[in-house]
Amino acid sequence: MTMTGPVQTEQHPLVELQGVSKVYGRGTAAMQALDGVDLRIDEGEFVAVMGSSGSGKSTCMNILGCLDTPTQGKYLFKNLEVGSLTRNERALLRRHHLGFVFQGFNLLNRTSALENVELPLIYQGAKVEERRSRAARALAAVGLSGWEHHTPGELSGGQQQRVAIARAIVTEPTIILADEPTGNLDTARSIEIMELLTAFNKDQGITIIMVTHEQEMARFAGRVVQFRDGQVLADTTNGERL
Amino acid sequence: MLANTLLLALREIQRNVLRSFLTILGIVIGVASVIVMVTIGGGATAQITEQIASLGSNLLMIRVGQHHGPGQTEAAPSFDLADVHALSREIPAITAIAPSASQKATAVYGNANWSTTVTGIDNKFFKVRNWTILSGRQFLETELRSGKTVCVIGATVAKELLGQQDPVGNNIRLGNFSCQIIGALEAKGQSTFGSDQDDLVLIPLRTFQRRIAGNQDISLIQASVAEGRSTEKAKSDIEYLLRERRHISSSENDNFQVRDMKEITRMLTGTTQILTTLLGAVAAVSLLVGGIGIMNIMLVSVTERTREIGIRLAIGALEREVLLQFLVEAVVLSSFGGLIGILLALSGSFGLAKLLKIPFIFNPGIMIIAFLFSAAVGVIFGFFPARKAARLDPIDALRHE
Questions:
Q1: Looking at CB atoms within 10 Å, which of A40, A185, B185, B226 has the fewest?
Q2: How many angstroms separate the Cα of B213 from the Cα of each of A239, B7, B81, B83, B205?
Q3: Which of the listed residues B226, B245, B278 is the one where a domain comes to its end?
Q4: What is the pTM of this model?
């Protein structure tokens, strides 16, 4: 195995894309979203994925998030070939190892913050009391103690995104995949969110892969991967963070 | 997990109370109408059986003439007392035999007069028809033999002519002779066919033949068959004997008929049962329509909640977990419909039974069946929308606006 990217002592990277291509549609309508992407991310990294729309970064995120599978090439998650897994096996992988944060927050409407955060624990089969206390702790960790019983409609955008982050970290995942988490927020709120993510990355060693348009937000990451036309254009390490 | 799913379903229903109620209305009506039909049908059947039993269920009725259908009766010679004696002598299965003859007549008491049926009988009549004498007595042997002008009257006649006073001892006028009331019958109420069984005056057969009919004819012979003896066998024996006595050749049809009350019971209850089944089947169609309503709303619900499904799938919900969530919701909805339908049916059939004056028979079996059926409707019609939800692509679902 050739060693590229940041030098790591671990034998296997956490996730690795090997020559991954993704084609949507067929025949003349076919659209090449990813074209032979190689990428490896090690445990504990904070990676910002950048690129204009249509550059393939969202497709790459979907594949990394086990929501989609490559048309060609291999996606290894902890050395496990994700492409060969069934839909349900991928769901279990997401359930136990991944946390998602979306641009549009994607909380359940008319459902309290606490219940939103409890949701992944329900699918993990946690007991009611355990679920309650873990969700409350996660909300406290994002600075939302006292807001447990507010529904998304009663929370500001920044607060909603914090609930979403609490939902992502409550299961203590290996990776958080954040798709433009600050896209709908003003700068002050965005910086708060980025600080939160950075804290989880540093303190709990959760690997974070984040798509963003904004250079300012990408600066919080230790590494920036640039996409263009379905390929990795640049893969740079933010010197000042190392 | 199942408890969570159930809770989730209940909350989803509670969020849309009005819509949920409208959704299950079809099931409510379906379940309620099936139960009402079956309950009322069961009550009607029970009533018929009971009324026929009050006539005496092992009774054979032997009539003159051959009925070809309603109102079409072929004229034929009447029976006479010799026939009656022959029957009781030759057919050992008969325990009691009651010859009778009837005619319409007007009964008069003071200023009141009442048109009724006067029937000439002997004392066996009371036994074979299960009549109970409320006050007074039966006819004496001497009264029967000499054809005395005494009578036993039914409850309707007593009420119409004498009002509340005890009829026994009073005299009423029948046609051209006066007649002393020696007994009053206990009321039996309406018959299955809607006629008033208590509208009758009974007099000794001989009195009837002499004073009213002016002949020796007997139009009806009623015979009780001994308990444990086959009424079928007794019936064919009677037919054989009467054909011989009436000189009917083997090529001719009977000019009399022997009817078995059991046969009539079977025929009548059979008819009501067929009707009940038919009405129940029609009602069951509305259950089907109700199921389609549930499917429709569940499909709308899946579309409305596409994002939610996307979130659940992204978080790691398995296909079958999403399927179960929507399926449970549909089943809970339809079961609620079933429960409300049962409550509605209970009060509805109770009220209707009172209105139609038939017994209200609580039938837990049909309730359980209707409830299970409504739950099954939820499973069947909820499955397709639930599967649609479970098979959504999480990426598309999350992007759904």
A1: B226
A2: 130, 81, 15, 18, 10
A3: B226
A4: 0.74
What pLDDT shows up at residue A242? 42
Residue extents of the structural domains in chain A: 15-241
User: Mutate which of B305, B315, B321, B387 to test chain A, going by most A C-beta atoms within 10 A?
Assistant: B315
Q: Using one digit for the tens of pLDDT, what is the confidence trace for A131-144?
A: 999 999 999 999 99
The answer to whether residues B315 and B195 belong to one domain is no
Cβ count near A184 (within 10 Å): 16
Q: Which domain holds residue B350?
A: 2-51+266-399
Name the burial class of residue B331, with classes exposed (0-12), middle (13-18) and buried (19+) by CB atoms within 10 angstroms of its CB. buried
Within-domain flag for B23: yes
Residues B94 and B46 grouped into a single domain: no
Q: Which residue of B has its CA nearest to A99?
A: B315
Per-residue pLDDT tens digits for B203-261: 999 999 988 888 888 888 988 888 778 888 888 889 889 888 888 888 888 888 888 87
Amino acid letter for position A176? I
Q: Are B109 and B210 contained in the same domain?
A: yes
What is the DSSP pairing of strand A98-101 with strand A80-81?
Answer: unpaired
Low-confidence ranges of chain A (pLDDT < 50): 1-5, 7-9, 241-242
Q: Does domain A15-241 have CATH number 3.30.830.10?
A: no
If one counts the domains in chain B, the total is 2
Q: Which residues contact B48 (CB under 8 A, 6 or more apart)?
A: B192, B265, B268, B269, B272
